[in-house]
Every structure is written in C-alpha cells, then in structure tokens.
C-alpha cells in the first residue's frame, strides 16, 4: 500500500530557513530544484515519516527534511531501493544519521534518533512532486 506525501520543504541556501512548498520539480541526478543540496551526489533529498516525527514530539520541517511522508516506512530501507514519488523516481542512498543540529533541538534527541532521522535519496528520474502525491516502493 502506498504512502502519501504530506509536506515538501526546500532550503534555498546555507543558514537560511526552510520554505514549505506545495510542489517541487526534481531533476535527474541533481535533486530538488531550488534546494541547497541540488547537485550533491548522495544527499539530494531527505525523507522522514510523520509517524517518526510524532513519536519524538516534532513537527514537519523541524529536522530539516525535504519531504514528510505518511503510511510508508522509509527508515532503514537498503541502499539502492527505488521509490516512486509523484512523477519522480528516487534511489535510497542511506540513512541520515543525527548530527549536533538534532541535539540542539532537545538534549538526548541525537542518541534517540539514531537510524530514525530520515532516509537520504538521489533523484533517478525527475518530475513534479506534490503534496498529496503517493509514494511507494517501485516495481522496477
């Protein structure tokens, strides 16, 4: 059963706040158009489950994810797993390990969120991704 995209965020530059958008264009091998991580090799898109945010008392965007999803578990997916999200195809490149930024939200949160901070992906096939789109494991 597919999950659903609840929120989309882009970070226009370093030391800038996230901007919540209803749609983002993705580009193959580049990432989210307009995001500071555009063009990086493995860290183009960060996904996190709303269920995880709820468990830790966090709100969407607070841990600087690009896409908040619901109804699908993305944490711990093996590297190379393909995900269809809207018109785009993502490839999992690994888990995002919590850094000092997470600890600054709340002391102890960094150690609590090990292997739960989110899943990093790169864009294989670009296209539009919108709030409300489905996200699922690809059959390819």
Structure description:
With 140 residues, the protein is mainly beta. Helix content is 11%, strand content 39%. The chain is built from three helices and eleven strands, in the order E-E-E-E-E-H-E-E-E-H-H-E-E-E. The strands form two sheets. A seven-stranded mixed beta barrel has the order 1-6-5-9-8-7-11. Strands 4-3-10 form a three-stranded antiparallel β-sheet, with no helix packed on it. Strand 5, helix 1 and strand 6 (67-70) form a beta-alpha-beta unit. The radius of gyration is 14 Å and the shape is globular. The relative contact order is 0.27. The mean pLDDT is 94.
Show the helix and strand layout:
Layout: E1 3-10, E2 19-21, E3 23-27, E4 31-32, E5 45-49, H1 50-55, E6 67-70, E7 82-85, E8 88-95, H2 100-105, H3 109-112, E9 119-125, E10 127-130, E11 134-137
Parallel strand pairs: 5-6
Antiparallel strand pairs: 1-2, 1-6, 1-11, 3-4, 3-10, 5-9, 7-8, 7-11, 8-9
Compact summary:
The protein has helices spanning 50-55, 100-105, 109-112, and strands at 3-10, 19-21, 23-27, 31-32, 45-49, 67-70, 82-85, 88-95, 119-125, 127-130, 134-137. The strands form 2 sheets. A 7-stranded mixed beta barrel has the order 1-6-5-9-8-7-11. It starts with a strand and ends with a strand.
């Amino acid at each position: 059963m597919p999950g659903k995209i609840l929120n989309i965020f882009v970070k226009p530059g370093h030391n800038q706040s996230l901007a919540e958008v209803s749609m983002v264009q993705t580009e193959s091998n580049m990432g989210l158009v307009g995001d500071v991580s555009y063009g990086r090799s493995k860290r183009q898109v960060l996904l996190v489950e709303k269920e995880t945010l709820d468990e830790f008392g966090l709100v969407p965007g607070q841990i600087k994810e690009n896409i908040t999803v619901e109804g699908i578990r993305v944490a711990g997916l093996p590297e190379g797993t393909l995900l269809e999200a809207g018109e785009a195809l993502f490839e999992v490149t690994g888990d995002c390990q919590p850094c000092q930024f997470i600890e600054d939200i709340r002391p102890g949160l960094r150690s609590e969120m090990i292997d739960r901070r989110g899943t990093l992906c790169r864009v294989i096939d670009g296209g539009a991704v919108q709030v409300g789109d489905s996200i699922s494991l690809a059959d390819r």
